[in-house]
């Protein structure tokens, strides 16, 4: 009973810390980045956090089957992050999938449920999956709210570049000189 109570307390604390970390990331990112820069930041951050699973594989000395599966998963998150540099929908999918991937690891770590046979997923620190699920779903929800502004940011940038190109290639008439 005491062990279960301890886990519940740890899980709730990690959930709260995950939400607070997401809130801090969102507030700071919104303050220091333009909409385009913010989108690029979240795309690169998705790639970075997916990389934790390779570190966990090394640290926990995962079996080769786990290395293969984690490498495939990280490759998917890498592609979603790279596509997400330009298309926010890829980030919404990527962060949501990453949160579910984290939760899947958490379930397996506690023997609750696993979609894979033993040894196929990398071990993770206690309640890490709960922290990441909270963080990832909060960020995915935030991206939903910023999506239109990020898309508009790319359009404004493209229009500004087009105007700059037009003025660079315009021929001045003798009257302008």
Rg on CA atoms, Å: 21 Å
Distance between the termini: 87 Å
Largest sheet: none
Spell out the helices and strands N to C.
HHHHHH
Number of helices: 6
Describe this structure in words.
With 177 residues, this protein is mostly helical. It has one domain (11-151). It is built from six helices and no strands. The protein has helices at 2-32, 35-50, 52-59, 64-84, 88-109, 128-169. The radius of gyration is 21 Å and the shape is globular.
Topology:
Layout: H1 2-32, H2 35-50, H3 52-59, H4 64-84, H5 88-109, H6 128-169
Spell out the key features of this protein.
about 180 residues, mainly alpha, about 0% strand
Brief write-up:
The chain is mainly α. It contains six helices and no strands. The protein is about 80% helix and about 0% strand.
